[in-house]
Each structure stands twice: as structure tokens, then as C-alpha cells.
Design brief:
By secondary structure, this protein is mainly alpha-helical. The protein has a two-stranded antiparallel sheet. Strand 1 and strand 2 form a beta hairpin. The chain is elongated, with a radius of gyration of 19 Å. The protein starts with 12 loop residues before the first helix and ends with a helix. The model has no long low-confidence stretch (mean pLDDT 89).
Length: 133
């Protein structure tokens, strides 16, 4: 699984790659101990410069998320809790942005979406209460 990279986004590619890899680690695509693709291979797969991948890997290694062992490869160490919560919040924000965008395309206003969300949350809480018995 490859992280999504958008050369037109205005965000530096190495930052996009860092954030994408963090997200994949959180989702379990790259669990602790799993070997990451080589710098060269990931650069080829993503069609970006290998120096960009090397910089992203370097930043991730400095943060303690990955570890490179000369001659053996680069491996996931795991995410410190602060990164994990930060990435999860970013993923939730992206989901909410998509929800709002889709709802607006259907003709709903923000207040309609909020009311439906509150109704759905209340319904889920009631269902969870029924399952606890």
C-alpha cells in the first residue's frame, strides 16, 4: 500500500509522504517491525525523486517512528502516542470534510447535517445501551 501524494497540493512532497506513512502505520498497513520499501523502490513506485523519500524517511527516523539498519533495510518502530492522536485527528477531519462536501452536493445545509448527526449519535448510544445488557 502506497501513501497518496499530490504534486499539485502545494504541500512539500516529503511532508505528504511523512504524513501518509504515519497514517498507514496507524491503520496497520505497516505494523511495528514491518520493513518499509527501500528509498529507491518507493521513489519509483510514487514517481518522485529518491531524495524526497530519503528526506521523509530521515524525518520519520528522527521522530523515532522508523529505524534504518544499514544493509538490512528500514523498519517501523511504531508511533509515539502524540503522533498517533495527531494523525487520527487529521483523518477524522478529512472524513468530516468529505461528509460535509457530500452533504452540500445533496443540497443539505450545515444545520441539517448537524441535526442528522446528533440524531444518529443518539440512536447509536441507545443501541449500545441495548447491547450492554
Amino acid at each position: 500500500m502506497l501513501p497518496a501524494i499530490d504534486p499539485k497540493s502545494g504541500v512539500p512532497l516529503y511532508i505528504q509522504l511523512q504524513e501518509g506513512l504515519k497514517g498507514l502505520i496507524i491503520k496497520g498497513a505497516y505494523p511495528t517491525g514491518k520493513q518499509l520499501p527501500t528509498v529507491r523502490q518507493l521513489a519509483v513506485d510514487l514517481r518522485i525523486n529518491s531524495n524526497t523519500v530519503a528526506r521523509a524517511y530521515s524525518e520519520l527516523e528522527r521522530a523515532g517512528i522508523i529505524s534504518t539498519h544499514q544493509g538490512r533495510g528500514t523498519f517501523v518502530c511504531g508511533l509515539p502516542e502524540v503522533f498517533e492522536s495527531e494523525v487520527k485527528e487529521q483523518q477524522l477531519d478529512a472524513l468530516l470534510e468529505q461528509l460535509l462536501s457530500d452533504a452540500y452536493l445533496l443540497g443539505y445545509q450545515a444545520q441539517n447535517v448537524l441535526c442528522r448527526l446528533e440524531k444518529k449519535l443518539k440512536q447509536n448510544r441507545q443501541e449500545e445501551g441495548e447491547h450492554e445488557d
